[in-house]
């Protein structure tokens, strides 16, 4: 069976972002660029459907990489049981990125893993002649209107974008950005697809070259 890939792209910018390195422990540190799964989630935040697989291809950095110290009062589920019972928060320190802007590229393809799809998704997939093309057309319409399936964020929920939409003419890629080598970069934590078990996958020796990070191609991931 021939699988058709349909390109999709978007631009997103904001004052603060974090793409957490899992090895940074309880004081999170951001990667210099969004992870594969983060880019996938941003596209799916505009338009999500389990019958379609979004495959991130590349991210272009349109602002220089700038790290910044950040502190917030954490009140989430990772607190101790006594802290949760007492309603006590604690200060969480992180190293984040500031003044970011990215151009994101991906392709939309029919999801080959149909065992976990809902009956509604299966019905849509069955009656759509070209699911990838249909997703592309709907995605582009929603992006131009500023519509989204869920609220977009730049890593953490409080880091909301100042812009997301089609490419802007004034945006330029930072081709003079020095190369950044990332020895190990988280790719996905649910790498087997929709409604599957946790299984972390990493890419190694990833390079941001002339302001662009091209995600390594993997069969089925």
Overview of the molecule:
The protein is globular. Strands 1, 2, 3, 4, 5, 6, 7 and 8 form an eight-stranded antiparallel β-sheet that branches. Helices cover 19% and strands 34% of the residues. The model has no long low-confidence stretch (mean pLDDT 88). With 221 residues, the protein is α+β, with helices and mostly antiparallel strands. The protein has helices at 36-46, 81-86, 119-127, 131-145; strands at residues 6-17, 52-61, 67-74, 90-110, 163-165, 180-188, 201-209, 212-214. The chain is built from four helices and eight strands, in the order E-H-E-E-H-E-H-H-E-E-E-E.
Say what oligomer this is. single chain
Strand content: 25-35%
Content-based structural category? alpha+beta
Question: How many strands appear in the DSSP assignment?
Answer: 8
Estimate percent helicity: 10-25%
How would you sum up the major sheet?
Answer: 8 strands, antiparallel
Features:
alpha+beta; 4 helices; 19% helix; 221 residues; eight-stranded antiparallel sheet; single chain
